[in-house]
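S2.1 Query sequence (DUF4845 domain-containing protein)
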Amino acid sequence: MTGKLGREGFIKTFLLLLIFAALVFVGISFGKPYYRYNTLRSHTKDILSSEINVLPAIKEQVLKEAKELNVPLEEENLEVTMQNKIIKVKATWSETVNFWDYYKKRLDFDMEVEY
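Output structure tokens follow.
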């Protein structure tokens, strides 16, 4: 293999592949929390547009969806209110992206959905 590429070409190709793999890993690591946020937001909109009009039942459904999506949402950080026939859901949570204990980044999420 080193005959066609040469020693420098092989090392350069190997380093480029290594950098590409690292970028993919970072993208996936940071993408997961945002994907879960958007999915929970979408499911919450679906819950609000359903025929459930009881606030405790809505809160229970949102917490159930959060648990299924592995979103670290606690009941005290979830607020469901109704004003003038408009149901509002507010939720806050944090997730930490960890790269082998070398670098940690805390991501804070605020979700507000109304219907």
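The first helix runs from residue 2 to 49. The two ends are 62 Å apart (CA to CA).
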